From TrEMBL:
GO terms for molecular function: arginase activity; manganese ion binding. Belongs to the arginase family. This is Arginase. Its EC number is 3.5.3.1. It comes from the Archaea. SUPFAM superfamilies: Arginase/deacetylase. It comes from Halogranum rubrum.
Length: 303
């Protein structure tokens, strides 16, 4: 059966302090995502963009001081997450594979919750960062550094109905490619039941065994896996158009190998591409890369 991918744009930057990431969905569409997927034999539907609310104070959220245990634009993040969760859940109900286009990584709160609405899911999180802060541990107050903790109901997020993903067990959550964690965030990750592979694991073992393990852990006893791809997972030389670049990321080939394994595993339930910031990009190459990697994850083959 051919797979149908449903594109859902989430043009938001409320979770990040770098404006411009809200133009990610346009940049990714402009890079030819729909055409590339069609060429790879995938049926494509485009649900358009979510109606992202306008903030009262657009330039910045001055009510939040750094490290004061709050989160910037949390009401706007809630609104976007709720819309996205509904879209993701309805795509799945229609038999399509949701492909959420960010936007900053706070959108994962919505996509994970939507994917886990009627199912038990696992998550593979390809990222330089852990995104495991809570308002009290976050050094920045930016919600894009918090979505995994939010989905898992950790710390301040315990019992936060709109953010928690019911069908998600931390034992099925796997982070891959970590290289930039805050000190308190490290502790929260260690105290949780998630599995975390750093860049050192990839250096030592190679990308293939690490991703093989990640998919097995995420998929075990679940109905499928949500794959969250933060483009800052890749080395900034390959993906310059991101708000929080960190040296020493995976290469173009390693990234393709990983996402081809996602396709081969057969466990992919939902996908998201986040943190593409066209203002910081060079000739839209990060959006093009996101497009190519999505095609690999959805089953594109060279021969
Ligand atoms: N999705 C991202 N790019 N997250 C970056 C998070 C950076 C930092 N750890 C913070 O919490 O502010
Ligand atoms: Mn990141
Ligand atoms: Mn991230």
């Amino acid at each position: 059966m051919t797979r149908t991918a449903r594109l859902i744009g989430a043009p938001t930057d409320y979770g990040a302090n770098r404006r411009g990431v809200d133009m990610g969905p346009s940049a990714i569409r402009y890079a030819g995502l729909a055409a590339q997927l069609a060429k790879a034999g995938i049926d494509v539907e485009d649900a358009g963009d979510l109606n992202v609310p306008l903030a009262d104070e657009r330039a910045q959220d001055d009510s939040v001081e750094l490290g004061d245990g709050q989160a910037r634009f949390i009401d706007e993040v809630e609104e976007v997450s709720t819309l996205l969760a509904d879209e993701v859940a309805s795509a799945l109900r229609d038999g399509s594979t949701p492909v959420a286009l960010g936007g900053d990584h706070s959108i994962a709160i919505g996509s994970v919750r939507g994917s886990a609405r009627d199912a038990d899911i696992g998550v593979v999180w390809f990222d330089a960062h852990g995104d495991f802060n809570t308002p009290s541990t976050s050094p920045s107050g930016n919600v894009h550094g918090m979505p995994l903790a939010a989905a898992l109901g950790i710390g301040d997020f315990e019992g936060v109905e709109w953010a928690n993903a019911r069908g998600l067990n931390p034992e099925n959550v796997v982070l891959v490619g970590l290289r930039d964690l805050d000190e308190t965030e490290k502790r929260v990750i260690r105290e949780s039941d998630v599995t975390a592979y750093t860049m050192s694991d990839i250096d030592e073992r190679g990308i293939t065994p690490v991703v093989e393990d990640a998919l097995a852990v995420a998929g075990e006893d679940t109905d499928g896996v949500h794959v969250s791809l933060d483009l800052d997972w890749l080395d900034p030389k390959e993906a310059p158009g991101v708000g929080t670049p960190v040296r020493g990321g995976v290469s173009y080939r390693e990234a393709h190998a990983a996402l081809e394994m996602v396709a081969t595993s057969g466990v992919l339930r939902s996908l998201e591409l986040v943190e593409v910031n066209p203002i910081l990009d060079q000739h839209n190459e990060t959006a093009e890369l996101a497009t190519e990697l999505a095609a690999s994850a959805l089953g594109k083959r060279i021969l």
